[in-house]
Request: fold
Amino acid sequence: MIKLLVRRWVSRLALLLSDWADQAREQRLKRAMHKCGPAVQLYWPVIVAGPEALDIGEGTSIAPFVHVWAGGRVIIGSHCMIGAHAAITSLTHDYLQPEMHRTMVAKPVVIEDEVWIGSHAVILPGVTIGRGAVVGAGSVVTHDVPPYGIVVGIPARVKATRPTAPEGRLSCNSGPPRVDTPLPSP
Reply:
């Protein structure tokens, strides 16, 4: 009986410590970002390389196991949902060079407001995903997605268009995020 109580107590203590550690990691990551809006939810583990080049708008939710390579600049708008295991990269290599592993090509990624990116989707460098768009689970986005477009597949193609919302329905009306927002000097 006592062993069972001790085991339960240790289990609860471990859970509390784990939650505390996750909250501390989340706060460190948010402070390291170029910009992080209020009410951003990060579900651990989330991996971000180059957080100083990452902007996330208010109310955006990023699920577990999302990877973001932000070295070339990644801007995620407000009220976006990014599903588990998605990958967003603004960096690639120049495959036309003889030693491509020594090259790095940076192209910004812009994800506008109210976008839903499904689980296991891949967003490649230089892509802009328009406001209100939906990226289907497992899709590989190689080109820009129009506002309210629904894309699926490898490579992702527009399969449908969402109805546009009545004026004022979407919570963010400040226009699309801007790539030319200056980054702080190193």
